[in-house]
């Protein structure tokens, strides 16, 4: 049984390696670590391209491959890891390079991985559970691993997939500028899941099914959730109220949860599965941070389109969610390096970026930069927050508006979303 699985997966490996490939932004950085003795751990949601990314990372080497997310595998009590290694050697020879896909499906995987690492194997692992990064990896692979996060395509990857190169000459031509903004608008509404982008799939069909599949496989089944309808309702509610604030008590009342503890646990499961992010309010006072409402974001804008009940897209919310996910793709961690902020006058700033112990940048996101009332509201909040937090780096991200503005003795930059997304200095 195991022999046939290894050989079938070897054929799948060859098939995937032969397919056209969109180079990922993280590839150059990841290749620097490829020959080190650190365990390379590629993390992110299912269907975001982790497996193909990892295969392409190793394509110039002889390497063995095994995917633990395979319905033909025996139950955890009967899985013989020594037999697995024997079958891999027979199929691939004596190579020390191995890619293990969806490693979290193997019970006590960390003991097996540690053993192989001690034996000198060069390991690349993929996992679809954020807890691998925060808890299990930190506990069991301390100092012996390098995490690499792969999320759905960023905008530069979208442009590579569309074979569209941005140049100053093109941007000077109105029709070319219009084409760029059209690609950005499509990305903002349909998201960056590779199959949606490369195959032109309708996110309303593909991502609706994918979300339900991820919810069942990575949440309900993994955590043995008894009330699966409740967690489905929770996920749908947060997507429908993306970028909005929520408190545990109010959310529990709205969704009929008897316990706020259960609700918080379910929120943790959705975060672990890379579906939902919760953003805390920034404050130097820990108590205020914990008591304040959270803001909800989703891993990919396509889920908003596919799951939200709405008559027409709210471009402001789509833009804000896109900026949040881009910050995460650049390596910032929510609630450690990304927060939202409320001034003493209760004006909200979308994102406060922290480096070390200091807030270093404040960002507002607005689709309606031609509306003077909206602009005044956004810059008032930025100036107030800048003075309260002693931050001079103030940015308003717009759809396609670029200028500087002086207000209250401070300079505020207005930058188009597309330009900021393609800013290589921050990737």
What is the structure about, briefly put?
The chain is α/β, with parallel strands linked by helices and 427 residues long. The protein is built from 19 helices and 14 strands. Helix 1 (2-18) crosses helix 4, helix 9 (174-190) crosses helix 16 (301-307) and helix 11 (203-223) crosses helix 16 (301-307).
Helix-strand blueprint:
Blueprint: H1 2-18, H2 27-31, E1 39-43, H3 50-57, E2 64-67, H4 81-92, E3 97-101, H5 109-118, E4 122-127, H6 131-140, E5 145-149, H7 155-161, H8 168-171, H9 174-190, H10 194-199, H11 203-223, H12 228-240, E6 245-246, H13 248-255, H14 260-272, E7 276-279, H15 286-291, E8 294-298, H16 301-307, H17 315-329, E9 338-342, E10 348-355, E11 358-365, H18 372-389, E12 394-398, E13 403-407, E14 410-416, H19 417-421
Parallel strand pairs: 1-4, 1-5, 2-3, 3-4, 11-12, 12-14
Antiparallel strand pairs: 6-8, 7-8, 9-10, 10-11, 13-14
| Count of discrete structural domains | 3
Percent helix range: 40-55%
CATH class wording of the largest domain: Alpha Beta
Poorly predicted tracts of residues: none
Radius of gyration: 23 Å
Q: From the coordinates shown, what is the CATH architecture of the largest domain?
A: 3-Layer(aba) Sandwich
Sheet/helix structural class: alpha/beta
What is the strand arrangement across the widest sheet?
9-10-11-12-14-13
Major β-sheet, in short? 6 strands, mixed
- What is the tally of helical segments? 19
Shape: globular
CATH topology of the largest domain: Rossmann fold
Output mean pLDDT: 92
């Amino acid at each position: 049984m195991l022999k046939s699985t290894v050989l079938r997966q070897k054929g799948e490996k060859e098939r995937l390696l032969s397919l056209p490939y969109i180079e990922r932004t993280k590839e150059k950085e990841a290749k620097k670590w490829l020959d080190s003795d650190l365990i390379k751990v590629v993390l992110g949601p299912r269907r975001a391209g982790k497996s193909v990314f990892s295969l392409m990372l190793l394509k110039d080497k002889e390497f063995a491959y095994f995917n633990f997310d395979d319905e033909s595998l025996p139950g955890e009590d009967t899985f013989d890891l020594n037999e697995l290694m024997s079958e891999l050697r027979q199929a691939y020879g004596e190579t020390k390079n191995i890619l293990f896909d969806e490693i979290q499906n193997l019970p006590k995987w960390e003991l097996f991985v540690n053993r192989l690492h001690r034996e000198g194997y060069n390991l690349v692992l993929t996992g679809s559970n954020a807890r691998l990064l925060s808890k299990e990896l930190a506990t069991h692979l301390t100092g012996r691993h390098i995490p690499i996060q792969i999320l759905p395509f960023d905008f530069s990857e979208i442009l590579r997939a569309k074979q569209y190169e941005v140049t100053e000459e093109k941007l000077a031509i109105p029709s070319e500028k219009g084409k760029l903004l059209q690609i950005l608008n499509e990305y903002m509404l349909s998201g960056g899941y590779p199959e949606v982008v490369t195959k032109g799939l309708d996110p309303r069909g593909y991502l609706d099914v994918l979300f339900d599949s991820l919810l069942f496989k990575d949440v309900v089944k993994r955590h043995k959730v008894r009330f699966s309808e409740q967690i489905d309702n929770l996920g749908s509610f947060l997507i429908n109220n993306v970028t909005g604030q929520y408190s545990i008590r109010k959310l529990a009342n709205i969704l009929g949860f008897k316990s706020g503890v259960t609700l918080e646990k379910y929120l943790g499961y959705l975060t672990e599965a890379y579906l939902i992010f919760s953003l805390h309010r920034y404050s130097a006072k820990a108590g205020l941070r914990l008591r304040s409402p959270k803001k909800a974001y989703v891993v990919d804008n396509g889920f908003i389109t596919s799951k939200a009940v709405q008559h027409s897209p709210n471009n402001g919310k789509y833009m804000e969610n896109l900026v949040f996910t881009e910050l995460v793709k650049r390596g910032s961690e929510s609630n450690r390096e990304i927060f939202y902020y409320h001034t003493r006058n209760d004006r909200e700033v979308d994102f406060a970026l922290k480096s070390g112990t200091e807030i270093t940048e404040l960002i507002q996101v607005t689709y309606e930069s031609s509306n003077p009332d909206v602009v005044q509201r956004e810059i008032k909040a930025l100036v107030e927050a800048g003075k309260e937090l002693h931050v001079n780096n103030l940015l308003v991200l717009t759809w396609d508006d670029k200028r500087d503005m002086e207000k209250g003795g401070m300079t505020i930059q207005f930058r188009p979303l597309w330009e900021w997304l393609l800013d290589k200095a921050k990737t």
